[in-house]
Design brief:
Blueprint lengths: L6 H7 L1 H8 L2 E5 L3 H12 L4 E5 L24 H12 L4 E5 L5 H11 L3 E4 L4 H13 L4 E4 L11 E5 L7 H12 L7 E5 L8 E3 L8 E3 L4 H19 L1
Parallel strand pairs: 1-2, 1-4, 2-3, 4-5, 5-7
Antiparallel strand pairs: 6-7, 8-9
Helix pairs in contact: 1-2, 3-4, 3-8, 5-6, 6-7
GO molecular function, one term: ubiquitin-like modifier activating enzyme activity
GO biological process, one term: cyclic threonylcarbamoyladenosine biosynthetic process
Organism: Hydrobacter penzbergensis
Length: 239
């Protein structure tokens, strides 16, 4: 039975597509500016099972762009804050919450145990990101990967394309290079922006660990990336 809170989605899509979504299982890794809103949009679509993964805690510098980040949630685990929100949106959601950084063998364990219909990569560190993409591809789990939203301000330049067709994105460049070294040249759907980044808005600092730098962000751009990635997942799952 389709619940009342989904009545507007039901009107938009019809019963068959809504019921498809209600029977799907989606994994979202990384719950920052992109991943948090992406997970929320997937939950609001009525997807019935989700796993969300992030080990990070809310810092007040996240409050300009991240769904879990409020003054009242500072210091709390992003995954736990978001989990409470998702369950409040859909009390029937079957939700698995993992408060950990995933990499190497742990990535494999999670993917092999999950029976996921779709995976979303919102990881912002290079090696775990590439390993996750490769592991999903090897298991034929459909995946959409978000590339760099930092330093961008123009939403009209956000695109959905194949990894091989990305440009003007440093993260995309490094991901492409790493994937090529693993024999993967194309076949990965990504969300990216072709907008040039003002390099004066990027600073190298130890505070960015495990990354090497911090980049300026504006409120709406990570959300646009996240909503775009969510749309890829939802449209593919219902069709």
């Amino acid at each position: 039975m389709i619940p009342y809170w989904m009545s507007r989605t039901q009107l938009m899509l019809g019963d068959e597509k809504v019921e498809k979504l209600m029977n799907k299982n989606v994994l979202v890794v990384g719950l920052g500016g992109v991943g948090g809103i992406c997970a929320e949009m997937i939950a609001r679509s009525g997807v019935g099972r989700m796993t969300i993964i992030d080990a990070d805690t809310v810092d007040l510098s996240n409050a300009n762009r991240q769904i879990p980040a409020l003054h009242s949630t500072a210091g709390k685990l992003k995954a736990e804050v978001l989990a409470e929100r998702l369950k409040d949106i859909n009390p029937s959601l079957e939700l698995t919450v993992l408060t950990e950084y995933i990499r190497d063998s742990r990535t494999i364990e999670i993917l092999d145990a999950g029976q996921f219909d779709y995976a979303v990569d919102c990881i912002d560190t290079l090696s775990p990101k590439v390993h996750f993409i490769k592991a999903c591809r090897e298991r034929k789990i459909p995946i959409v990967s978000s590339l760099g939203a930092g330093g961008k301000v123009d939403p009209s330049q956000v695109k959905v394309t194949d990894i091989s067709k990305t440009y003007e994105c440093n993260l995309a460049k490094y991901v492409r290079k790493k994937l090529r070294g693993l024999g993967i040249h194309k076949g990965i759907t990504v969300v990216f922006s072709a907008e040039k980044v003002d390099q004066s808005r990027v600073i190298e600092t130890e505070k960015a660990y495990p990354k090497k730098s911090v980049i300026g962000t504006i409120s709406y751009m990570p959300a646009i990336f996240g909503c775009t990635a969510a749309s890829v997942v939802i449209r593919n799952l219902m069709d």
